[in-house]
Design goal:
Length: 158
């Protein structure tokens, strides 16, 4: 049996916060505002794997109202979700992602992000891909006020 999952997320970008994608920090004047560390890509991937397994979503498992998740490392949340997915008998086959932001440029650190996600999700880095897009100067993403991420994944159970 195979199943696909989709995750999507968006965070405001503000001064005084770190800019994180898949556990990799970028030099940036602005970073993601959020209850946790704000790692938008980690959140999209978490929702994708949880959704594919039919296990709920990030908001249900890590409620923002719960002080335990304040400034939480989103890669640890992703790992926690992945453990649940594995416990349900699923194996992750591959992951494909898109990050949309005006700055910083994703490309110089793309392979670091792939390696970071692959390590956390027990995948070969070749099974993880991340593409960078801009907002073409339009809307909150184009104006540098937000970053968005989308992720799709495939799960397999024998
Ligand atoms: Zn988020």
């Amino acid at each position: 049996m195979i199943r696909v999952g989709l995750g999507e997320d968006l965070h405001r970008l503000v001064r005084g916060r770190r800019f994180l994608l898949g556990g990799v920090e970028f030099p940036s004047r602005r970073g993601e505002l959020g209850h946790s560390d704000g790692d938008v890509l980690a959140h999209a991937v978490t929702d994708a794997i949880l959704g594919a397994a039919g296990l709920g979503d990030m908001g249900a498992i890590f409620p923002p109202a719960d002080a335990a998740w304040k400034d939480a490392d989103s890669m640890i949340l992703l790992r926690t979700a992945f453990e649940r997915v594995k416990k349900s008998g699923w194996r992750l086959v591959n992951l494909d992602c898109v990050v949309s932001c005006e700055k910083p440029k994703l490309l110089p650190r793309r392979d670091l992000i792939r390696a970071s996600l692959a390590r956390t999700l027990e995948l070969d880095p070749a099974a993880v891909f991340v593409k960078g897009k801009t907002g073409e100067g339009l809307g909150p993403i184009g104006k540098g006020r937000a970053v968005a991420a989308r992720a799709v994944c495939l799960l397999e159970k024998s």
